[in-house]
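Example (one chain per record):
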Amino acid sequence: MSTQHILCDVADGVMTIRLNRPEKKNALNQAMYTAMADALRNADQDSTVRAILLTGTDDCFCSGNDIQDFLEMPPAGEDAPVLRFMRALAEARKPVVAAVNGPAVGVGTTLLFHVDLAYAGESARFHMPFVNIGICPEFASSYLLPQMIGHAHAAELVMLAEPFSAARALECKLINAVLPDAQVYAHARAKAVKLAQQPPNALRTTKMLLKRWNAPRVAEAIMFEAQHFMPMLGGPEAREALTAFMQKRKPDFSKFA
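Predicted structure:
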């Protein structure tokens, strides 16, 4: 399951899935999505795995999608690697814990809606910049975020699309606790190990019950958002935003209706 940029290991009943592309701030490409989807599915089938831990490198969790990779190989259809990963995480039967340090951008933030426990360092910075780059929210965030914090606060985070702190993420109930950066991974792993020591069937059943009532709507939201996200990725607003980024200038959306 391990690849150059996705490292997996199992110890103490915990499968750790580590994003390991520090030179790109752990930006996710198609191969990384495929590796993570496969790891999550394998974890569900492996009786030696009782819990899953998602993490990045010491100073970065995930800077979102590798835009160049997405533009060269845009996701198409329900079997696109990104959608396979989204379904694998949303449907994971075993508990998933996340340890977040540094930037958590785009999918680096929205994937946290689908884990069971999340812990962040004091320097963690969260950002859902979809509107800023001419696209729309994904990973059922347009459904789950208003449920969690109400429409007004959700609109502030995804329509103004400004970065927010770990303290704000805690206030929004996106994470369980804020810790000193150096303690995040050890704390999250300790929680994962504790989960791995719980009665496994009782734990899986409890997670199923907690997610059961929202699961059909989450699955629907993932695909409905994707139907908008995919064409927008190659649309004129996204092209202007990404061209402006590469040219180090402010994008001009005044010509779009």
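Caption: The two ends are 46 Å apart (CA to CA).
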